[in-house]
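# nightly structure sweep
# worker-07 picked up a monomer target from the shared queue
# config: single-sequence mode, recycle default, output format = structure tokens
# input follows
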Amino acid sequence: MDNNENPKPKKNLSLIITVICLILCGLTYLKTLSLTDQIYSIKNTLNSLNNNYSNISGSIGSISADVRNSLNESASILAKTNYNMGEINSENNTVEVKFNITPKEYKEGSIAKIYINNVPYDMTYSNGDFVYTYNGPIETDINPDKIEIMSNGVSYSESLENLSINTKEMFFPYIYADFSYSKSDVAGGKLNLEGDVNVNYAKYSDTDYEIVSAKAIALANDKTVKEYTCELENNGDVYSYIHISDTFDIGNNGKFRLILVTTDSRGYIYENTLFGLSTNISGTILNDGNSNEYYLTRVYDKDHNFLFDKEY
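# output follows
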């Protein structure tokens, strides 16, 4: 009898332990879900704080910039600065620029100097402005560095970097010239060349000159062997095109260049290298290594005196 009743307490104990484990697992799962919700809530709170910080930081930055600008403006001795561009003088290749600078306050007897490319020039006071008319070479940018005003023995100065003028960009076109071609070597230093020249002219909108002519010139050993006239089209932007298909005799130890020559209504001349190569002692055609020539425009005056290179 005693032997038959002993297993029951063990079974009951196992059942109790199993139930307790299930209860503990359930409580743990519920606790985990609660912790997950709390972590998610904390994450959202942190994201919200971060967004608020970004907004506050942006607002502070904006306020700081406004304050800085206000301080700079209040500290400035100038009320207004500007310049008026004259036309290019193609006879001596200079350009005229009139600078007008208005001081916030003018005291009788005050004098001013404007520094352009680090050189001081005396200004004249007229109708509330200090004025100076500058004449400079067209190949040099005009960089007003500062104005210096002397009043009652005290000197005040302020930067004028906002008045800098890139004369090459303002007064001379960007010429984007491309030559799509195929070539073949013919015995005895001769070249078969076929291709299309495409040119676009981009110029400063306020300038009053026009592109009046363009031609492609083939040179063998620095001598012109053929010229091709490019027809100009103007549909808002000036564009030119020409097809080339010819055989050129370069010879041994020779060189060949195809250039674009453009003129404008002021008489300025522009040269762009479109293509170039050379031959060796046996007349075999070689590739020309001067590829940097293809990314610049050489600018000359109307008498074909070299002025400067303009890269693009």
